[in-house]
Structure formats: C-alpha cells, structure tokens
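Below is how a single chain appears once it has passed through the pipeline. First comes the sequence as given, then the structure the pipeline wrote out for it. We keep one example in the README because the format questions we get most often are answered faster by looking than by reading.
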Amino acid sequence: MNDNVNIRELNDIIASKSDFLNLIRKGMDQRIVGQKHLVDSLLIALLCNGHVLLEGVPGLAKTLAIKTLATLVDAKFSRIQFTPDLLPADVIGTQIYSVKKESFEVKKGPIFANFVLADEINRAPAKVQSALLEAMQERQVTIGDETFQLDRPFLVMATQNPIEQEGTYPLPEAQTDRFLLKVVIGYPNKEEEKAIIRQNIAGSLSPVYPMVNTQEIVEVQKIVGMIYIDEKIENYIVDIVFATREPAKFGLNDLSGLIGYGASPRASISLALASRAYAFLRGRGYVIPEDVRAVCHDVMRHRIGLTYEAEANNITADEVITNILDKVAVP
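Resulting structure:
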C-alpha cells in the first residue's frame, strides 16, 4: 500500500516535470530532422548520468544533436577531434610553467565541460582513450598532484564511423563497457531527407535558446533515481543478462557456440538505470517489462562478445539479443 502511495506521488512529480521534457524535445526538433531514437538515447544517458557511444556514418547530425542539447540546457560544450597524434594532455589538460609566478599552473583541457563530444574516438591511441574513459568513470581528473571534480551533469558522446577502419584503434571491450549505451543510427527516410535539404538550402538553422539549466537536470536525475523497480523486473533483467552467459539454461542451445563471453554485471546495472530513465520519458514512476525491452539492445550490444563462428555467419549482437528477449519469460 505504501509503495502504491509513493508511486502515485512520484507520478505526480514526473507529470510536473513533463514541461521540462517537452521544452527539450521541442528545441531538438527545431534543429534535428528525424533521429528520434538518437534524441531519446541522449536524454536517457543524461537522466542516468551516463555516456553514449554512437555509431553511424558521417552526416547524420551527431555533432549537431549534442551541441543543440548543450545549448538547450545552458551548459558548457566542448568538442574533441580524436586523431592519431593526440596526447592525453590535449584532453584532460596539463601543467604550464609561469615565469611571472615562478611556479607551475594548471591549464585545464576540454574535458572540463558538461557535454563533451569525442569525435571519432577510435582514431586516437589507447593512452588517449584511457585518459578520457578514466574521467568518464571517476568523474574527476588528476593533473600533476591536483585532483579536480568534474561538473554535473557530465555527459560524453563518443562517435565511431562503422565504415572506415583504416588507421583506427578499436576500443577494447573493457572500455566500451563503460558507456551506458551504444547507439547505432541509420539514414533518414525520404521525407526526412527532403526536409533536411530544405532546411540547409534556407541557409541557416533555426536558433535555439536555453530552456532549462544544469541544476534542473541534476534535480531530475534524482527523481529518476527514485523510480520504482519491482523485484519481478529485477529478476527479468538478471535473467536477460544471465542468458548471455549461460544460454543453454534458458533453452538457447543454438546461441552457445555464438557467444564468446556474456554481458558483465555493469550490463545489469545499466539496464536498470536506462529502464528507469525510459519510464520517466514515458511519464511513469515505475518500470514495466516494455521499458527493459526498449533499451535492451542499446545497453547490451557492446557488452556481448561474439565468436568467430558468429562473425563468419554474419550474426550480429542485435540478433543474439533479439533471440534472448524472445525466449526469456516476461513477468
């Protein structure tokens, strides 16, 4: 009974925050044609205090999307173009000697922002990727003997080009695991493409202005953290993750030879967090199985290792996840 009262109160709180979401979505629609999944994924990551790994060919408004979101939230935005000659200091900052003060001073890097675009993250060597991912995980940066806390909200959107692999440094699985979501976006449809042409021929994009502030985002993150997850939903999440590790126990014998390694415990945590955020986007104070299923592919596609047999048969992680969702009992 108490849970029902709490959920009712939470639904009222979420309803009062619906204007917050409407303002952001309206602002994004002014600039971004289509790409609803991309916009929702950015909002989910923002609400969960997580990060997004985005895979798509050039020209799909990836940069425009996060830059527009930063403007709407009235937050600091920085863009880092990852290249093979980039150094960790180019990301996190370094110490510079001041002749005037006769001492070293800290010069902060572009990581000190609320929204960071790591463009083509797989073009920089491992030590640069590690510097970025450490800041993402710890939410702090150490330069010399000084440690600096990063401002909240802090969201990194890293992009990868799935086509061109020459001269790239693929992210190790242990590092991709630190991204809450891996989102794969495709081309727009014909109507959206025509709208994009008209928008760009006009010569200028619609201006957008700050609609909310960073403090409001932090407050909404706390509300999302209060969204109720029933034990049955928790069991459902655990079953999905365990099905990637022990497929035979769930009647998925055909997947045993296709999965090299299953999803980590971070997948279970991320599924719960992303499901809460998805429920918030749908105006609910509780999670239902459809929320879990809606975010499952984005949460898990980069956390499952496929065998050579799977790759030889052109079987993707998305197909494996779909089979698991079809087989695991829904509460």
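The CA atoms of residues 141 and 229 lie 33 Å apart.

See the next section for the split statistics.
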